[in-house]
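User: I've been going back and forth on whether these two constructs are worth ordering. Before I decide, could you fold them both?

Assistant: Sure. I'll take them in the order you sent them. The first construct and its structure tokens:
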Amino acid sequence: MSSWVLKPVRAVFRAFVFLFFKIKEPRTIRLVQFVIYACMVGAGHFVVTVQPDVYTEVVGTALVVGFGGSILLGGLLGLIAVLPGIWWLERIAILALWTGLGVFVVVQAALGISIVGLLIAVALAASFVQRWSDITEFDLAPRAS
């Protein structure tokens, strides 16, 4: 391949490597959490903007916007906090996500719509329990000595 093609490819690769090593350890866990938080942002945005009729008919628009907003806020705070290791902010994100997912689980159970959706929400909440236990000891990511 000619150098005019490889030069930009190498520059992009170096930029990705540089950004990857800016993420605090353990990088793979943080990247997975980042993807989970991004999915929660998408889910919260959907619930806030679309407001599915199946939920608004049962609990009303205000509660739907409330639990969707809680999921959206938790996802946004998690996105901001997880990669640099701002754990006090990530704990706030997890609390907001637990709140939103808790209301979602109660509504799902009351409606009896989908056991799959209920189990996915419970599994996500459990993953946040695991993340909470990983980050409770510190406010910020520990520095290498």
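The second construct, handled the same way:
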Amino acid sequence: MEHLASRREAFATLSGAKSSVNAVITEMAYLYAQRVSLPASHPTYSSYHSGLRNSQASSILVTLDTCTRLGGESALSVVLQRVLALKMNPEYINNTLVPLLPGICGLARREGKSVTSEPFASGIRIIMNNWVEVVLGPKPNEAAGQPLLVKLQKFTCTEPNCVRVRKFLTTVNAENSMTLARIGAPARKHIERELQVHACSAATFETVRTTPQGLTVRWFCANYGFVSGSHTEAVL
């Protein structure tokens, strides 16, 4: 297909009908769009260890580019429909579909089209809608979190480590866990008692087996509006 397209002028001269050659190339591109192998939405091995994240998006972008150049928007539309018809899951959306967005916009610009024209607009809209619905998930349930906040307001111990824990639990953080390093067993036990009374419905805690001992506190109610949903840990 690429060979025929690169020599279309020569073939048109031989056949005397350039439009016929172009029609054949367009038809071939359309069939290619229907049959070309595309990455699965559920890879059989981890993208973080295999580099699959980049290779999946790159492979699809090459296919989109080929179909657009040789088959126009009809072939492009077929590939987009196939890519977006796969079962959606957070990894596929984050690692494959979202990285396609700059490429789709670039194809639109190259073709002299607006990203609000079809099929570009539909592809972008479906990717973004799935990212919002599947990756971000439902809106945080702020009302359900209010009883926890009321209970945490009774956590009034002024011991410095308790103050740090209380601030962590009542502030929207970029982390969902904190570690009080080497505070010693007496301080650890004191904080655990306070948490058992005032935060048993909102957080868990775990002893850090160092000398002296430390304590890690983690949220486990990330669906509430005052709790961050990221999964990183701050060592304080």
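Notes on the second construct follow. Residues 142-235 form one domain. Residues 57 and 99 are 6 Å apart (CA to CA).
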